Amino acid sequence: MIYLDYCSTTPMSREAIETYAKVASTYFGNEQSLHDDGAIAKQIVEQARDVVSNAINGRREGIFFTGGGSDSNYHALLSLALAHEHKGKHIITSPVEHPSVTNTLKVLEERGFTISIAPVNRYGEVSIEELAKLIRPDTSLVTICHASSEIGTIQPLEEIGQLLANKNILFHSDCVQTFGKIALDVERFRLSAISISAHKIYGPKGVGACYIDPKVSWRSIVPQTTHQRGFKQGTLNSPGIAAFAVAVSEILEFRDKEEQRFRQLQQHFLKQMDAENISLLGHPTKRLPNHLSLRIDKMEGQEVMLECNRHDLAISTGSACMIGQADPPQSLLAMYPKQSVCF
Length: 343
Known about the structure:
By secondary structure, the chain is an alpha/beta fold.
C-alpha cells in the first residue's frame, strides 16, 4: 500500500516511539505530584512546553497541552469567547474551517453569540476586504484556519492579524495542517491563539497543544479545574507530550528542505496531470507544499477513493457525495456555490 493520506494522520517516528516508551515505563509519575517522580514528570512536560513554544515563536507560559487539534479548538474558542463576551458576542469565521471549529461555534451560538461567515474566492482564500466589512462594534473574536485539509489553500494570516490587531479583536487560527510544514510565527501573524496537533507531524495521537498569548485573558470552561492553571482538566499525558516534543524537534530540523522537496513533487505531479476531467482545487501556488486536492468531473469521490484503494493507494475524499447520503463539504459549496462538486 502506498500511503498518501498524511494530512489525515502520520506514523509515529522511531524517536517519538522510543521516547514515549521510555517516559511511560520509567518516568511515569503524575506531574502534579509533589514527590520526586512527579517532579521528573513535570520537568519533562516543561521541557516540551519550551520546545513547542519556541517552534511558533511564542512564550512557554502560553502553551497548554490537550488531547489533539479538535480538543485545542474547542478549549481555545470557548475560553476566549466567554472571557471576552463583555466586549461583544459577535464572532467571524470562514466556510473552510474544520468541523471542530464550526461545531464549537454552534455551542457558542446556543449561548447567545452571533456568527458571521467571511466569504472566500474560487481558491478558497478569505478576502481581507470582505472580512473587514463584517467587523462590528461587538466583534470580539475571529477564527480563520491557516490552511484547510480539504483544499490546501494557505490563508493570509499576517494581513488578517494586522487588520484585527488594529481593531483590538482577538484572532484564533487552527494551524493543525500547517504546523511543522511551513513557517508559523504567532508574533508576526499577531495571533491571540492557535491550535496544533502531534499526530500530523509523526507524533502520537491523542496529544495536541493550544497556545494563548499570555497577554490575553481567558476563562476556564470547567470551574475548579487545577490542571494547567485551570485551562483543561485531567492528568497530563507526559509520555505523549514528550514524544510530541521530539516530533516537533525532528520535523523542524528538516522543514525547509522538505518544503522545497514537496513543492517540486507537487509541481511535477501537476505537470503530469494532463487530463481535461481533472482539475486542482485551491490556490495553485499559495497552498500547503504536501497537499493536493483534485476535482474529477463525472466521478464520485468515494468511487475514486475505492478504486485507488483497490490499486494499493491510500487517499482521502472530502465527501462521498452520494445523492441522499452526503452533501459536498461547506468549503466546496463556498468556492463553487452554483455547482455540484465531488472530490
